[in-house]
TrEMBL record:
Novel STAND NTPase domain ranges (all copies): 43-118
Coiled coil: none
Matches recorded under InterPro entries: nSTAND1, P-loop_NTPase
Organism: Lichenifustis flavocetrariae
Protein name from the UniProt record: ATP-binding protein
GO molecular function, one term: ATP binding
Pfam families on file: nSTAND1
Listed transmembrane segments: none
SUPFAM superfamilies per UniProt: P-loop containing nucleoside triphosphate hydrolases
Keywords: ATP-binding, Nucleotide-binding
Amino acid sequence: MLKDLGILVYEIAEVNDILGVFNSRLARLASASSGAPRWSGSPYKGLEPFGTADSPVFFGRGPERQEALARLRQAAAQGTAFLLLHGSSGVGKSSLARAGLLADIRTQTSDADHWRTAVLA
């Protein structure tokens, strides 16, 4: 019945059987996503802000990143390319700026070589 629904069913007798099935499925998934960036270690940094090197695992702020980049482009077109991010402590301003916006400028902007960026800590 489960097979009729397209659900994979494995006969498991021992824990090692489970590990074997798990490892083979994991290897198949890894080879299927071979073009995806690799990440080692935990992507959760606690209170430490994400940096540009963390951009492959920085998720969940897509609309904010798009809005920030659009506002920055608009300001640049007016000759005032400056964007101030403000908010309560710990909400992710630094991560948004570094792993989000700065990474987007470097990868999505055709004239990224003409943009000057500075990270003030």
